[in-house]
Q: What sequence folds into this?
């Protein structure tokens, strides 16, 4: 990878997103930070090595427009980390059309549109990496119905894209978090769960590895990053 090869991070202004951005910057890789316009995205964009591009990540048109904007930057995307997503609790009886549609668009749609936009750009440069974010609940255990279903779709999307994009030397993998140790989560976690929750920086290191050359043999994997949580 050349010095101008950048990582696109969607949902970059969230707690995990900021840790991922920091991990890439520490490794000398510039970042194109995509997310909803606002102060947090502006603060990220003010850092050396970060280029912020606002976008509604659940909108196909907005995502493709954001990547077109990124084409004018002095860096070239070599990887995508699709972090953007949403969470809504609820059992079967709680699911309604608006909530389901919102989770489907935020979780599956944001990953799909970003992958769709970056894939031809990665293919043109000879390959690259895509990392999506599923969830422990996508593959096991009790879970909020709509959220788990949307994250399960992200995991299956990852597997399908790994097969489809292999010929273009694009690797596609997922990480599966459970409870992440963030200020927002600590507001409701018990002391026991807080002790077991996984730090964003620890997950970010796994994502950075999957996005780098040392992970060249890995594609189509769903990597648990939930520790004991």
A:
């Amino acid at each position: 990878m050349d010095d101008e090869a950048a990582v696109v991070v969607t949902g970059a202004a969230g707690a995990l997103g900021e840790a991922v951005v920091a991990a890439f910057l520490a490794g000398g890789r510039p970042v194109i930070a995509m997310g909803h316009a606002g102060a947090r995205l502006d603060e990220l964009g003010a850092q050396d090595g970060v280029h912020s591009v606002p976008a509604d990540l659940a909108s196909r048109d907005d995502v493709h427009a954001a990547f077109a904007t990124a084409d004018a930057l002095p860096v070239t995307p070599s990887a995508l980390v699709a972090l953007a997503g949403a969470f809504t609790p609820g059992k079967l009886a709680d699911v309604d059309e608006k909530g389901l549609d919102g989770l489907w668009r935020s979780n599956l749609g944001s990953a799909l549109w970003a992958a769709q936009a970056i894939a031809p750009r990665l293919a043109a440069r000879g390959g690259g990496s895509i990392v999506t974010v599923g969830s422990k609940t996508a593959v096991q255990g009790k879970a909020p119905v709509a959220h788990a279903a949307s994250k399960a779709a992200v995991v299956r999307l990852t597997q399908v894209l790994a097969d489809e994009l292999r010929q273009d030397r694009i690797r596609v993998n997922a990480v599966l978090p459970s409870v992440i140790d963030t200020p927002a989560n600590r507001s409701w976690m018990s002391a026991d769960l807080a002790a077991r929750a996984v730090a964003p920086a620890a997950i970010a290191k796994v994502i950075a590895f999957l996005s780098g050359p040392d992970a060249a043999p890995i594609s189509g994997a769903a990597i648990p990053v939930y520790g004991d949580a």
